[in-house]
């Protein structure tokens, strides 16, 4: 087996990322996981968080991807991430994410006042998505 990973990130909008890599670090719902070549096959649920991809040993450059949950499968040196949405750091519209954050904070406030638990959960997830995008955009 070769000493290199192939990393692809798929969303309903298409392929967001497709590159060879030396290491991938992602946040599962149980915590952070680092994937190196020859990793054992796994399928894990991902948190709404950033995925870091280091493409070569020599290079210090890291690609950052904001991933909106989803799943990651590792098999035969192929890391496949499938998520509802995902954006590379350079593709994130920061002002849109800032607006989404403000909207979510307002929705949280309203849901709390109305004691609407479902709305509160949805708004918290939306807030988390927006904060994740803002954080990832800072890596450009
Ligand atoms: P918004 O309220 O701004 O639409 P959202 O969290 O509801 O944010 P999603 O439903 O997760 O958005 O995503 C819808 C589509 O818009 C996806 O293709 C996603 O990649 C894209 N998207 C959402 N927010 C941003 C952003 N800040 N920058 C770039 N693309 C974004």
From TrEMBL:
CDD domains: F1-ATPase_delta. Residues 91-138 form the ATP synthase epsilon subunit C-terminal domain. Keywords: ATP synthesis, Cell membrane, CF(1), Hydrogen ion transport, Ion transport, Membrane, Transport. Residues 5-86 form the ATP synthase F1 complex delta/epsilon subunit N-terminal domain. It is found in: Cell membrane. The keyword Cell membrane applies. It is a peripheral membrane protein. Its main location: membrane. One of its GO terms (molecular function) is ATP binding. PANTHER family: ATP SYNTHASE DELTA/EPSILON CHAIN, ATP SYNTHASE EPSILON CHAIN, CHLOROPLASTIC. F-type ATPases have 2 components, CF(1) - the catalytic core - and CF(0) - the membrane proton channel. CF(1) has five subunits: alpha(3), beta(3), gamma(1), delta(1), epsilon(1). CF(0) has three main subunits: a, b and c. Produces ATP from ADP in the presence of a proton gradient across the membrane. HAMAP family: ATP_synth_epsil_bac. This is ATP synthase epsilon chain. It comes from Candidatus Enterococcus clewellii. The gene is atpC.
């Amino acid at each position: 087996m070769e000493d290199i990973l192939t990393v692809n990130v798929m969303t309903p909008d298409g392929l967001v990322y497709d590159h060879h890599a030396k290491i991938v670090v992602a946040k599962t719902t149980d915590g952070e996981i680092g994937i190196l070549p020859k990793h054992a096959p796994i399928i894990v649920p991902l948190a709404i968080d950033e995925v870091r991809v280091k493409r070569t040993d020599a290079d210090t450059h890291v690609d950052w991807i904001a991933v909106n949950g989803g799943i990651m499968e590792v098999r035969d040196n192929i890391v496949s991430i499938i998520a509802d949405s995902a954006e590379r750091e350079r593709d994130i519209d920061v002002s849109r994410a800032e607006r989404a954050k403000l909207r979510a904070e307002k929705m949280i406030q309203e849901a709390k006042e109305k004691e609407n638990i479902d709305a509160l959960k949805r708004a918290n997830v939306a807030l988390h998505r927006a904060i994740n995008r803002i954080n990832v955009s800072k890596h450009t």
